[in-house]
Amino acid sequence: MISIDSTVMKTETLDLANLPASETALEIHNLNLHYGTKQALFDVSMKIPKKRVTAFIGPSGCGKSTLLRCINRMNDLVDNCNITGEIRLHEQNIYDKAVDVAALRRSVGMVFQRPNPFPKSIYENVVYGLRLQGINNRRELDEACERSLRGAAIWDEVKDRLHDNAFGLSGGQQQRLVIARAIAIEPEVLLLDEPTSALDPISTLTIEELITELKAKYTVVIVTHNMQQAARVSDQTAFMYMGELVEYADTNTIFTTPSQRKTEDYITGRYG
Ligand SMILES: Nc1ncnc2c1ncn2[C@@H]1O[C@H](COP(=O)(O)OP(=O)(O)OP(=O)(O)O)[C@@H](O)[C@H]1O
Question: Where is each ABC transporter domain found (predicted)?
Fold first, then answer.
């Protein structure tokens, strides 16, 4: 079994199946997804609690990233991708025809595996989304820039070189800059798709500490290959296998007393 540091056991256990609406950020209902004829998600249902960290774990190809990408409709960009079921954010199905996808993606930000700053200054990277919204007031942008860089735990490292190109930062700094860019527009949900897999161990630790801080303000959903990382940063964990959600519970439960044999086999390293 994965050993869990007692310091991460910080939030009380939730009854995830009966989570009240006031504590639910997202509700996924009977979600099925096909890429062409290949089914990648099978009838996934779960409630993701507000202002906590939820991890999706499972072996390669089990559908973790696919499920994550459904939450801000990134799969809309994939040809032949067919989705049925619902994902409810504020009681509204994000797949309803009436939903403004650009607005959805402002509420549900995403950070990818490889840091992807734009070829611009640090400052312009952070305020990019605000400028897209038509905000050009210097004071407003300056304040948002500082607030976001502080929120992403990188302000002290970059405050004297805000107008330098973002490509001059290390990989770990670039990833925190990308997180600053994502939180500058004040989303509710942050989706992190293996955010540390391209980083060294020290940068990984810094990002993990940051993730723990982010949940004070945001609902965080993270896909990770790394079970120790899921154990360290998440409050609840969803174990997926071959497109199915096998088990979803508090992280402590998943890693110490899973109810499903498949979960136990995975976390004890029998496959994956
Ligand atoms: N754009 C796509 N077109 C067709 N099939 C896809 C596409 N994206 C993913 N798949 C397939 O869907 C299944 C789930 O993939 P997904 O990337 O969601 O898994 P994953 O659990 O995130 O894997 P990994 O841990 O390796 O990133 C896999 O069989 C994959 O090959």
Answer: 26-267
Reported pTM: 0.94
State how far the Cα of 110 lies from the Cα of 236, in Å rounded to an integer: 19
Q: Whose CA is nearest to atom 4 of ligand 1?
A: 35
Q: Which domain holds residue 97?
A: 18-267
Q: What is the pLDDT of residues 24-35, one digit of tens each?
A: 999 999 999 999
Task: From the CA of 65, give the closest atom in ligand 1.
Answer: 22
The pLDDT score that the predictor gives to residue 6 is 42
From the CA of 229, how far away is ligand 1's center (Å)? Answer: 21
Counted domains in the chain: 1
What is the mean pLDDT of the segment spanning 12-39? 93
Q: Mean pLDDT for the chain?
A: 93
Residue 82 CB–ligand 1 contact under 6 Å: no
CB contact at 8 A, 127 and 141: yes
Q: Which atom of ligand 1 is nearest to the CA of 58?
A: 21
Is residue 64 within 6 Å of ligand 1 at its C-beta?
yes
| Cβ neighbours for 266, distance < 8 A, ≥ 6 positions apart | 57, 58, 59, 239, 241, 272
Q: Is residue 11 part of a domain?
A: no
Q: Is the CB of 65 under 6 A from ligand 1?
A: yes
The strand pair at 81-89 and 24-35 is best described as antiparallel
